[in-house]
Design goal:
Blueprint: H1 2-15, H2 34-39, H3 46-49, E1 61-64, E2 68-72, E3 78-81, H4 87-92, H5 100-103, E4 105-106, E5 114-115, E6 121-129, H6 131-135, H7 140-148, E7 154-160, E8 165-174, E9 176-182, H8 185-188, H9 192-195, E10 207-213, E11 227-228, E12 236-237, E13 247-252, H10 263-294, H11 296-301, H12 303-326, H13 328-343, H14 351-374, H15 380-385, H16 401-418, H17 426-435, H18 438-448, H19 454-462, H20 471-512, E14 527-532, E15 536-539, E16 542-544, E17 547-549, H21 550-556, H22 568-576, E18 584-586, E19 589-591, E20 593-598, E21 610-612, E22 618-625, E23 643-647, H23 648-658, E24 669-670
Parallel strand pairs: 12-24
Antiparallel strand pairs: 1-2, 1-6, 2-3, 3-10, 4-9, 5-9, 6-8, 7-8, 9-10, 10-11, 13-14, 13-21, 15-16, 17-20, 18-19, 20-23, 21-22, 22-23
Helix pairs in contact: 10-12, 10-13, 10-14, 10-16, 14-16, 14-20, 16-18, 17-18
Length: about 675
């Protein structure tokens, strides 16, 4: 075992010696990258990035909620993240009377800051290589329990390099997080789904929160007696910006990448999974969009749901375009042929053949699983049926039975046309035969389920109704049984076999290419990605500059379109050019910088991440990638992959001039 661990350590060390812009690096091992970072413009030390002995940049970064990043920008717990990361909280506090989505929200004092039940932020305390402990037989659960110190901390043990390495991550979780400010959606979500994942981009994608703690600066549930959290470190903000070629790095919690998978997985993504999921979400979005256009209350009610559905929907489209453009399937097949030739006669011989065979077995289960997740479980009534005794008034706050019914008809029709009969529950097949059509079945289901409306649910609960007899509950149970027994179990078994094979294949790749830069795939743990401000050639003869300005917002401004109808105050400021200290000269024009591109390797989870200069100063807030860049989860290409950030100067300008909350800037450290 000791020999095995030494071999893996040597492989990782050799791999990390390679020079490349791409990669999502563990902060605790960033010392192995510092020479390359310094050569490209970094001015600090590895200890400045990550330390357990003194305050470091890591202490100004949080995992925001369950899948975004945030950064501390004051000594009084003030936190920045994306507008789309805080969207659910902004929508939660919105109503027709107080439409914070449309009009924005700004607390003018601490007493006006709004609490957000269930929202947490997590600070990484430390990360530790526990591979030796796991390989010695200690369970990840035992290691995790020890690190949590009877609930003082939260911890997880994550595998890296397909179970070749294991790391412990220990967090302190704060539970009293209050909304301080958010721009109108016409700034924070400017361009809506049309501009999402695109460039040029003009979105002020930010929101402002504050962390509260007890009198000892420790985590506590919401209380009016709590006080603003005092961080170990907060970011200095650069008001000077960056020019093309300047060093940048992103520090955050990237969610998931699969850079080392075989051609089988890429083929499944490109030719099976993405097309099906895109089609199903298109149907849902069409129904929701039509209802939103017809009614203001519905627009607000379904705003967050629409955004959540559309985000991945458009991302998958760009990912597929990028993978096709890069010929990623064919490129991996060529690599695999080289690997197999090299592996002949070694311990890695045959591993690729086994992976190909297992993926072929997995395909029908994987496709069916997609239809269960994106069709059946996309029906909100099925979600209600999964927790009938735990429903509350809040469950129905943003729910329209008419919309859900229309979605159910489309989803069940698609399910029936694309899923093999052996994966269709008998209960549903019988009811469908009795009804005569999908439409008739759905009408019957919604008419007879007490979960299909708030009024019916309240009445049934008061009468002591046996929810086990509800048709929606029976339907959910029938689908769950098939999803578990006929789909889930074989899928899990085959996937476990594939994962075991990847452990060998991953190790083999490291031996095959000892000079290659092998960074661990993202798994929502803290990482550093570095590069530079850079435009790119989008097509033959078309070069995209790396920044946008307020002038572009005015060019897109359209009062007839909700997502492009900017606040009148922004129009007035543009007309007067009264930009205050935020105005700059760009291309001979006096304007406000809005967004910029860089070559930092990012993915979902990096939303809200700070993008920093070589001195560790905040330049902006990462919020997106360009459309074709979304393929970087599977195949990074430094020529076209770009992350998009809102320029911090635009953030400050909006807080100051549009929100009238300039007092918040007094908390910040500006340079």
């Amino acid at each position: 075992m000791k020999k095995f661990l030494v071999t893996i350590a040597a492989l990782v060390a050799a791999a990390s010696g390679a020079i490349a812009d791409e990669g999502m690096w563990l902060p605790s091992l960033i010392g192995e990258r510092i020479a390359d970072m310094k050569a490209k413009g970094f001015e600090l030390t590895a200890e400045d990035i990550y330390s357990v002995n003194q305050a470091a940049l890591k202490d100004a970064i949080v995992l925001f909620g369950r899948g975004c990043t945030g950064e501390l920008v004051s000594a009084e717990g003030l936190l920045l993240t994306n507008h789309h990361c805080g969207y659910g909280q902004i929508q939660y506090h919105s109503s027709v009377e107080h439409d914070y989505l449309t009009n924005g929200f700004w607390a003018m004092n601490r007493g006006e800051e709004l609490p957000n039940p269930g929202l947490t932020v997590s600070f990484l305390q430390r990360m530790e290589d526990v591979t030796a402990r796991v390989e010695a037989g200690e369970t990840p659960e035992a290691i995790k329990a020890e690190a949590e110190e009877d609930g003082k901390f939260s911890a997880s043990v994550e595998s890296l390099y397909y179970n070749n390495k294991y790391y412990l991550f220990v967090y302190q979780v704060y539970r009293d997080i209050r909304l301080v400010g958010a721009p109108p959606s016409s700034i924070g979500k400017f361009g809506g789904d049309t501009d999402n994942w695109m460039w040029p981009r003009h979105t002020g994608d930010f929101s402002v929160f504050r962390i509260y703690a007890d009198k000892d600066n420790q985590p506590a549930d919401y209380s009016k007696d709590n006080v603003p959290y005092t961080p170990k470190r907060h970011f200095t903000i650069s008001t000077k910006g960056a020019k093309e070629g300047d060093f940048t790095f992103v520090y955050g919690f990237p969610g998931s990448t699969r850079e080392y998978v075989t051609s089988d997985f890429v083929d499944y993504t490109l030719n099976h999974s993405n097309p099906a999921k895109i089609h199903l979400r298109t149907l849902r979005l069409d129904i929701i969009s039509a209802a939103q256009e017809a009614d203001v209350a519905t627009r607000i009610m379904y705003a967050s749901k629409h955004a959540n559905i559309a985000n991945a929907w458009k991302k998958w489209q760009g990912e597929s375009l990028g993978l096709a453009r890069r010929n990623t399937v064919e490129k991996k097949q060529v690599y695999e042929a080289r690997f197999e030739q090299w592996a002949a006669g070694t311990e890695y011989e045959g591993v690729l053949g086994s992976l190909h065979a297992k993926y072929a077995e997995l395909l029908p289960y994987a496709v069916t699983r997609d239809y269960y997740n994106e069709a059946i479980y996309a029906i909100e009534l099925m979600g209600f049926a999964n927790r009938p005794k735990r429903m509350t008034d809040v469950s129905y706050k943003d729910y329209s039975p008419a919309i859900d019914k229309a979605i159910a008809k489309e989803m069940l029709r698609e399910f029936g046309e694309n899923v093999a009969p052996e994966f269709v529950p008998q209960w549903y097949a019988d009811r469908l035969a009795e009804a005569g059509s999908v439409d008739a079945f759905v009408e019957w289901l919604f008419a007879n389920s007490c979960l299909a409306s708030k009024a019916a649910y309240v009445e049934a609960k008061a009468a002591g109704y046996d929810f086990a007899e509800d048709p929606a509950v029976k339907m959910r149970a029938a689908f769950d049984e098939v999803a578990s027994e006929k789909v889930g179990k074989p899928y899990k078994s085959l996937n476990n076999e594939i994962t075991a094979l990847y452990k060998t294949y991953m190790r083999g790749q490291m031996v095959f290419e000892p000079e290659r830069s092998f960074y661990p795939d993202a798994n929502l743990t803290l990482r550093v990605a570095y590069g530079s401000v850079a435009g790119y050639e989008a097509a033959d003869g078309v070069y995209h500059k790396p920044y946008t300005t307020l002038d572009g917002i005015i060019e897109k401004d359209n009062p007839e379109i909700y997502d492009y109808d900017i606040p009148q105050s922004l129009r007035d400021i543009y007309a007067s050019k009264e930009y205050g200290r935020w105005g700059v000269e760009l291309n001979g024009r006096y304007t406000i910088p809005v967004a910029f591109l860089a070559k930092n390797h990012t993915t979902g989870g990096n939303s809200g991440s700070p993008i920093l200069n070589g001195r560790g100063e905040l330049l902006g807030i990462n919020f997106d990638r360009t459309w074709l860049s979304t393929m970087s989860d599977l195949d990074y290409d430094s020529d076209i992959c770009r992350n998009i950030s809102v320029d911090i100067r635009y953030v400050l300008f909006v807080i100051d001039k549009i929100g009238g909350a300039g007092y918040l800037l007094d908390e910040m450290t500006l340079n």
